[in-house]
Amino acid sequence: MNEQHGQKCDFVGMDRRDFLGAVARTVPTWLMVTAIVPELLAAEAGSPDEKYRPEEHRYAMAINIHKCIGCGRCADACKTENNVPREPVFFRTWIERYRVPFEGEAVVDSPNGGIDGFPTEDHDSGTFKAFFVPKLCNHCSNAPCVQVCPVGATFTSQDGVVLVDKDYCVGCRYCIQACPYGARYLHPTEKVADKCTFCYHRITKGQPPACVEVCPTQARVFGEMGEQASPISRFMRFNDVTVLKSWLNTDPRVYYAGADEEVR
Amino acid sequence: MRKIPQQLIPLAVLFIVLLGVLVVARQLFVPKTFGDLGHYRATAVDEVAAQPAAYAGYRVCLDCHDDIYQRKQLSSHAGLACETCHGAAAAHATGESDQLPTVPRGRDHCQLCHGYNSARPTGFPQILSNMHNPGEACVKCHDSHSPRMAKGNGECSACHQMIANQKAVSSHMSLDCTDCHTVPIDHATQPRVVQALKPNSEETCGKCHARGSSAGAEVARIDMAEHGGRYLCWECHYPHLPEAKL
Fold first, then answer.
1. Which residues of A touch B119 (CB under 8 A)?
2. Which of A46, A72, A201, B39 is deepest in the core (most CB within 10 A)?
3. Cβ atoms A256, A96 nearer than 8 A
């Protein structure tokens, strides 16, 4: 058997001893070259981490309802950051106020998305409890909007963000109908579907989304799901979190802490 | 070999032509990077990521405004980003725009967070606007970069803290204690022996509240001769919190 193997090596012109010797001599050199040269090249080209690699990220947002004060700065900042039309019907993110009466259904209102604040009645008698719930695209892992898009204009990127290809969208509004969270709208001038991108242009450069940046009470937390020490992982460890409309199996990437059963 | 039926030949040609048209049409109409990463245009991701940012982020601000930032970090506003109040400032930070970030000074801005609303979390500091120095700008008493309690009334509040606190949120907050009270200099050292005096005539209140006074239009006016009869003003009204209903 061994003899046969040795003969097999002969057809390239060397026996096994020579072959192993050659391997022992060349491999370390080759390893050194392959390890060092790309680093040298990268060092010359600039920072090696400059290129963003979407497959290495998995983003998520968490919202702490107990901390939200309903100031509406997130909704306002979102409109500024993303040039969302100022009319009070177009929002990428908005705040809802839930007022739960002693008996009956919760009353939900969101005047101008909460940007101008919420009116207060002199007497909230009859209200059992009240709280604010910021809403946005849930960036579902099983996104209904992505499933229904007939042209492939909306999609889940490699880092888990649901995006819209504005140049490819035909404005058919199927996705707006399909979204169970009401997170999409048809842009009135561009005539294409528009929605929250987690501020994709910011997060790919290491900045937080605009709503997270301006939130005065840190009710919104954003970060990498895969990292043990990221703000979002920490938040998920220390809070009991839930997702909206979990029975739809959309598997959202926006998590809520302190969400009452009335929250839809 | 069996002969191909004659009628199939034009059909086959037609199919080949249609197939060719399909291939050409796909080449023409399907975007180049479509399908590289999934059922979408791979370059669309870069297009979305290329959008310019309007918010610079607080780290950029503290390159120049470090002093304000350090003061803010020691206060209860430590968690606030600069752009929460001052608005998007990326154009200001990069020098693209000469326009300075906004400096909100009105009552409405602070009330977005601090106006009373039953849906806000318990314990979050809130005010009832019509009971808290109506008409005055918040920044008159509070430093928004270090929003502690408003400035006290100097040495009087050392002993009369409760009155000072009441007055601080009333419409009389801009008055000094000595505007109404006559305070002998020894009152501070011997408060029981040398007492401060309350106003002993209606003239003190009349300086602002009389019909012909020069005070601002928001100050309530009454006819001093008709109103109150033989009683002094403070026997019915509580001057440290005039809004209070007795």
1. 70, 97-99, 118, 130-132
2. A72
3. no
Residue of B nearest to A157 (CA): B45
Closest-CA residue of chain B to A54: B45
Q: A153 with A164: CB under 8 angstroms? A: yes
Alpha-carbon radius of gyration of chain A: 27
Phi, psi dihedral angles at A96 (to 5 degrees): -110, 140
Strand A127-136 versus strand A241-242 pairing type: unpaired
| Geometric angle at alpha carbon A264, from A187 and A232, rounded to 5° | 85
Domains and CATH numbers, chain A: 2-45 (no CATH), 55-257 (3.30.70.20)
A-interface mutation test, from B120, B127, B130, B144, most A Cβ less than 10 A away? B120
In Å, how far is B37's CA from the nearest CA of chain A?
Answer: 8
Beta strands in chain A (DSSP E): 59-64, 93-101, 107-109, 127-136, 154-156, 162-164, 185-186, 193-194, 220-224, 241-242, 254-257
Pairing of β A59-64 and β A220-224: antiparallel
SS3 A115: coil
Mind listing the pLDDT tens digit of every residue in chain A (264 residues)? 444 454 444 555 678 788 777 777 777 677 666 666 555 555 544 444 578 999 999 999 999 999 999 999 999 999 999 999 999 999 999 999 999 998 889 999 999 999 999 988 655 678 899 999 999 999 999 999 999 999 999 999 999 999 999 999 999 999 999 999 999 999 999 999 999 999 999 999 999 999 999 999 999 999 999 888 999 999 999 999 999 999 999 999 999 999 988 898
Residue A152, classed as helix, strand or coil, is coil
Yes or no, beta carbons of B116 and A120 under 8 Å apart: yes
Question: Which residue in this structure is represented by tokens 């019915």?
Answer: B236
- Which tokens in the block code for residue B80? 């606030």
Report d(CA B67, CA B169) in Å as an integer: 30
CA atoms within 13 A on the CB side of B59: 4
d(CA A221, CA A129): 25
A208-to-A23, A203, B94 alpha-carbon distances in Å? 50, 6, 18
**Four-residue CA torsion sign, A108, A111, A117, A119:** negative
Q: Contact A64/A76 with Cβ under 8 angstroms? A: no
CA of B196 vs chain A CAs: smallest distance (Å)? 40
ipTM surpasses 0.90: no
Q: Residues of B with CB below 8 A from A66's CB?
A: 121
